[in-house]
Design goal:
The structure holds three protein chains of three kinds.
Chain A: H1 3-10, H2 14-35, E1 38-41, E2 58-62, H3 89-96, E3 100-105, E4 125-126, E5 129-133, H4 139-146, E6 152-157, H5 163-168, E7 172-175, E8 195-200, H6 203-213, E9 243-247, H7 248-251, H8 258-276, E10 280-284, H9 288-309, H10 327-338, H11 341-353, H12 359-383, E11 386-390, H13 409-416, H14 419-423, E12 428-436, E13 439-447, H15 452-466
Parallel strand pairs in A: 2-3, 2-6, 9-10, 9-11
Antiparallel strand pairs in A: 1-3, 4-5, 6-8, 7-8, 7-12, 11-13, 12-13
Chain B: H1 4-13, H2 20-41, H3 74-77, E1 84-85, E2 88-92
Antiparallel strand pairs in B: 1-2
Chain C: E1 2-13, H1 52-64, E2 68-69, E3 72-73, E4 76-79, E5 89-92, E6 99-108, E7 111-124, E8 128-131, E9 135-139, E10 146-152, H2 159-175, E11 188-198, E12 207-213, H3 216-235, E13 243-248, E14 253-259, E15 269-270, E16 277-278, H4 281-289, H5 295-304, H6 310-316, H7 320-331, H8 336-353, H9 365-376, H10 382-395, H11 399-405, H12 414-427, H13 429-436, H14 442-454, H15 460-473
Parallel strand pairs in C: 12-13
Antiparallel strand pairs in C: 1-10, 1-11, 2-6, 3-16, 4-5, 4-15, 6-7, 7-10, 8-9, 11-12, 13-14
Helix pairs in contact in C: 2-3, 5-6, 6-8, 7-8, 7-9, 9-10, 12-14, 12-15, 13-14, 14-15
Classes of the chains: A alpha/beta, B mainly alpha, C alpha+beta.
């Protein structure tokens, strides 16, 4: 049920493409009024004709991807007027494939957040329920797809930032293997954890877009040599006999939340359904102490890397510079005014972690835990084709809930296991599978590194099995 | 554990100030985080494990050939710079006291 | 009294065509912002890419300095805020420097010494600040220029040794063609560490670091000033502070910049955007086996095998092309001492007189060898040779061609010389009579006449011999 293919069938001329563009722009404006998904809505029609699957297809791009001549703010005050003088590789490839940019979407500031409420251009509302958050940091991207404005959006995923909002809004969120898609031009948050991701309405669409975007980029030393596989051609392979597992310690939660309990119950139902089509699913035990270490390890690595990745934001060659009597004052005032308090707190933590006397215990130990987790996972991926888990514990939180309350460690596992996909660079996808309290919930499938085709294949077949009909949240 | 004064010093070293209230929030976050790390530091055998800097080994990495590209136009590159003079970004005179 | 200990950190700009981590042009340009890319400006989303030629050049220096070479490359971030540092960090090597535990042998009149190298690593340069009256302009041309940093152990024991080390190092660098190491263009810069200790003490004293000393002359002055300053402090019971100082070429003094060099924590950590890069052992082997003979080795050979003096040898190796010329001339059969004389004296004189650099003239080993041969087989005299030499360089011709063109062949036929001498004697009867009267020194005057009249074409040795015979007959 590919939205892209559906649209492509209707696009038979340049006029068709232009009309679709204009319609989509109108939708985008309405979407913005309701959900505040966009920082910038394109005001110019730009289309390069191509014979790719994406020719003429409208899409949105998270506002931390550089687009030459088009405002790219990172949803940060410091960059509120920043117009890049170069293109990200992702944008360049999509342009050349004939895709049509509709707008740049709102994110949690500099991608450092998970609620969709920390960007400087206001909070993003969940099209499934405007009283609820959509999660983040690819908040606007998810909203623009969930609201039916565009069939796909490009986001970034450092801990779960594509997969979580996808889960909260009933759409597909795919994070390929680390380096599969070039990060050149994507604002660096935590470079060893950052991935380009795709949000779409179906797994097929995620596959179509990934096929276009993947490939070695000489400008990104961490990008992978192309695997030479057309993912679209692999997603319908028979998955009978495949072996999946889920982690006992993550599923067996002690919780008071009815929503979480319901989600878990539905998850078990799904597992049974999956087994019934000839796929093996086993419960596996995973070292609890390592699981409990995920949160701390992630925080340490991501804050440490983020701090230095944002040291270029000083107001000098670009940015909202605030004057001062010397360069120190200029930098100080620029950064004080330019960053939100949340970001600053993350930076202080990050730089504390990197202090000479702290690195061993606070940074290197986090990297050691990362290795322990990844090595254990790799062992499991040698035995199993994929890990399957509920994407999150509960549904998208309400805006006035105290979702910053400290939750028990057990519950946290359900909310933070997707980080495993970033630690090991594993291809990982969230697809919607059910409704709890009228809100969508998703499952996340993660496979071994480099196994993008397999991930999309299994996910596609599960999508077929699930036949999720979350309803179309049209604008 | 970490004092507000220390937090102020750290943020100053990062070239920004925070609102007073935020330092308190931050101090709490430090406590939470350090609690997590204390837990991690107790994991057995941790110090014998190699830190993992990259998600996996990328194998044979290609280095860039020494062929220069054309320079980007200076003015164009600096179109986002708010204060320029004599063809580039300027700051009040820097006195060599680092 | 006090003994001085010196440690040096030398930064050298590599002469690659593009920069270390960005593909923009690596070239000196006096115009502002002409060699730049988006990566140099550290725009959000830009990523570093490693220059292969820069790595190879750095490895060749690491080999030449006899270091243990790492089996892989890893880079780190050095984090701090300054207007000349667009990223807010410099990409350098801290965790795994390219080479460690090496040495550079230096020679002086008394013998040789190994100066130990702590490490050599790769990093990138920062922007340059152009200070005007009340503002500073940031010139981004220099951002990202490849640098190699050589750090010595604190084992240099005098200012002369320090300069000798620097000059030797610079020469090695030029021989390897990895940098022009031109001080005036800032291509070779030093941080100097100086400490004093009591003569009988084994423990090193507290050191002061003098940063960014940009010429060897300045290094000399800075070290001397530090020795003076620290001596005075110690003599007056004042403790030496562990600090960073800057050197002023205008005053020749050093000034305190900040106390406790340790106080700045750069929060080094591994650069996540550059994966681990394996260094193939075969690459290093290749570089080792293809390494040219380095200056100090050449000097030792010239002194020990050819019996040249220290000063002559030092002159010969001052530029690789000069040493190559010397080597080739010997290979063609010339006597080392003679070849050395021509190069260290006549050639040096010629270059100085005409204010030329060696690379501005063309002189080949074939030319020089032929010239020496022609003198030795007496085809031309030493006087004539000087003239031939100048024309040889000036017009880039082989000596035998020049001799023919200038009609310079020396007459060596004894019959001819006898005839000529007798003609002169016939014309100078008075002088002959003076000789016969016992004042035999008059033969000097007669020789002069012979030479003048012959335009220097007659071989003087033979002419002298024959003149003495003929005058006896009168």
């Amino acid at each position: 049920m590919s939205k892209i293919i559906e649209l492509r069938e209707k696009l038979n001329s340049e006029d068709d493409i232009k009309n679709l563009f204009n319609e989509t722009i109108e939708k985008a404006k309405e979407c913005n009024n309701k959900y505040n998904a966009f920082v910038t809505i394109t005001d110019e029609y730009n289309h390069i004709d191509s014979d790719s699957f994406l020719n003429g297809i409208p899409y949105s791009l998270k506002d931390n991807f550089s687009t030459e001549g088009i405002l790219t703010t990172g949803s940060s005050n410091l960059l509120k007027n920043y117009v890049p003088v170069f293109d990200s590789t992702v944008y360049e490839k999509l342009k050349n494939a004939g895709a049509v940019l509709i707008g740049k979407t709102v994110l949690d500031e500099l991608a450092m957040g998970g609620t969709g409420t920390t960007g400087n251009t206001g909070i993003v509302k969940n099209p499934c329920d405007i009283n609820r958050m959509i999660g983040g940091s690819s908040s606007g991207s998810a909203a623009s797809v969930a609201a039916g404005v565009v069939p796909f959006s490009i986001g970034s995923d450092t801990g779960d930032s594509v997969r979580k909002p996808a889960s909260y809004s009933g759409i597909v969120g795919f994070k390929p293997t680390y380096g599969r898609i070039s990060r050149y031009g994507l604002f660096n948050f935590a470079s060893s954890l950052d991935h380009v991701g795709i949000l779409s309405k179906s797994v097929m669409d995620a596959a179509i877009v990934t096929d276009i975007l993947k490939g070695y980029d000489s400008k990104d030393m961490t990008s992978l040599k192309d695997d030479g596989i057309k993912y679209v051609n692999e997603i319908n392979n028979d998955i009978t006999g495949k072996k999946l597992f889920y982690i006992k310690e993550i599923i067996d939660v002690n919780t008071d939340s009815e929503e979480v309990k319901e989600n878990i119950r539905l998850f078990h139902e799904l597992i049974d359904k999956i087994k019934s089509i000839g796929v093996f699913v086993e419960e596996v035990s995973f070292d609890k102490s390592l699981l409990n270490a995920i949160q701390g390890s992630y925080y340490s690595i991501s804050c440490a890397e983020a701090t230095s990745n944002n040291s270029n934001l000083t107001g000098l060659p670009f940015g909202e510079r605030v004057e001062g009597k010397d360069y120190k004052e200029i930098m100080l005032r620029t950064r004080t005014d330019g960053f939100s308090e949340l970001i600053k707190r993350r930076f202080v933590l990050g730089s504390y972690i990197l202090k000479r006397e702290n690195q061993e215990k606070l940074y290197l130990n986090a990297l050691r835990v990362r290795r322990l987790i990844v090595e254990k996972m790799n062992e499991l991926f040698n035995k199993y084709d994929g890990l399957i888990l509920p994407s999150t514990g509960g549904i998208a939180p309400l805006f006035n809930s105290n979702s910053s309350d400290k939750l028990s460690n057990e519950y946290l596992l359900l909310e933070s296991h997707m980080i495993i996909g970033n630690f090991g660079g594993y291809p990982s996808i969230s697809i919607p599978y059910a409704k709890v309290n009228s809100m969508p919930v998703g499952i996340t499938l993660t496979c071994g590194a480099m196994k993008d085709a397999l991930t999309l294949n299994i996910a596609n077949k599960l999508e077929e099995l699930i036949k999720y009909d979350g309803g179309e949240y049209h604008v | 554990m970490v004092t507000i004064d220390e937090l102020k010093e750290y943020s100053n070293n990062l070239m920004f100030n925070m609102k007073d209230k935020e330092y308190e929030t931050l101090a709490n976050e430090f406590d939470t985080f350090l609690g997590w790390m204390e837990y991690i530091n107790k994991i057995e055998g941790l110090k014998d494990v190699e830190p993992m800097y990259f998600p996996f080994d990328l194998g044979n990495v290609e280095l860039r050939n020494d062929e220069p590209i054309n320079s980007i136009n200076g003015e164009y590159a600096l179109m986002n710079a708010k204060v320029t003079k004599d063809g580039s970004v300027i700051v009040p005179k820097v006195v060599d006291n680092e | 009294m006090y003994k001085v200990t010196i440690g040096l950190e030398v930064h050298v700009e590599l002469n690659t065509k593009s920069k270390m981590f960005s593909p923009s042009v690596n070239s000196y340009d006096k115009n502002i912002n002409t060699n730049i890319s988006v990566i140099d400006f550290a725009f959000p989303g830009t990523l570093p890419t490693v220059n292969k030629a820069a790595v190879n050049k750095a490895i060749s220096l690491a080999v030449a300095l006899n270091t243990e070479i790492s089996s892989y490359l890893m880079f780190d971030r050095k984090n701090y805020y300054y207007p000349d540092l667009p990223k807010g960090f410099q990409i350098t090597q801290m965790t795994k420097p390219l080479g460690k535990n090496g040495y550079l042998e230096i020679l002086d009149e008394n013998g040789s010494k190994k100066v130990f190298i702590h490490q050599i690593h790769i990093e990138e340069d920062s922007a340059s600040l152009d200070h005007k009256d009340n503002y500073s302009v940031i010139n981004y041309n220099r951002v990202g220029v490849p640098l190699v940093e050589i750090v010595t152990e604190p084992c240099i024991e005098s200012v002369d040794e320090a300069i000798n080390f620097l000059e030797t190092l610079r020469n090695v660098i030029r021989y390897l063609n990895i940098s022009d190491a031109d001080q005036t263009k800032g291509q070779i810069r030093c941080d100097v560490n100086v400490s004093l200790r009591k003569e009988d003490s084994d423990e090193l004293g507290v050191r002061a670091e003098v940063k960014n000393v940009n010429s060897f002359q300045s290094v000399r002055e800075a070290i001397n000033y530090e020795i003076e300053r620290q001596t005075e402090c110690l003599n007056n019971g004042i403790e030496i502070k562990r600090e960073t100082r800057r050197y002023s070429p205008d005053t020749g003094k050093t000034y305190s910049m900040r106390e406790k060099a340790d106080a700045v924590d750069y929060k080094y950590y591994v650069e996540p955007n550059i994966p681990k890069i394996d260094i193939e052992p075969s690459l290093v082997e290749n570089i080792k086996s293809n390494m040219i003979t380095l200056p100090v080795e050449r000097m030792k050979k010239y002194i020990n095998e050819y019996g040249l003096s220290y000063r002559e040898a030092k002159n010969l190796i001052r530029e690789k092309e000069i040493s190559d010329l010397f080597n080739k001339t010997i290979d063609l059969g010339s006597n080392p001492k003679e070849a050395s004389n021509w190069i260290t004296m006549k050639l040096t004189e010629y270059l100085n007189k005409n204010a030329l650099e060696f690379n501005e003239i063309s002189i080949t080993a074939e030319m020089l060898n032929e010239l020496i041969t022609l003198i030795n087989n007496k085809t031309i005299s030493n006087e004539q040779a000087k003239k031939v030499f100048e024309v040889m360089i000036g017009e880039s011709k082989m000596p035998n061609v020049i001799i023919k063109e200038l009609g310079m062949e020396q007459v060596t036929n004894e019959e001819e010389i006898r005839k000529f001498v007798n003609e002169i004697l016939d014309d100078n009867i008075d002088a002959v009579n003076t000789y016969k009267s016992g004042k035999i020194n008059i033969v000097g005057f007669l020789m002069g006449q012979v030479l003048k009249a012959s335009g220097g074409k007659i071989n003087p040795g033979l002419a002298n011999k024959i003149l003495n015979i003929e005058i006896q007959k009168r």
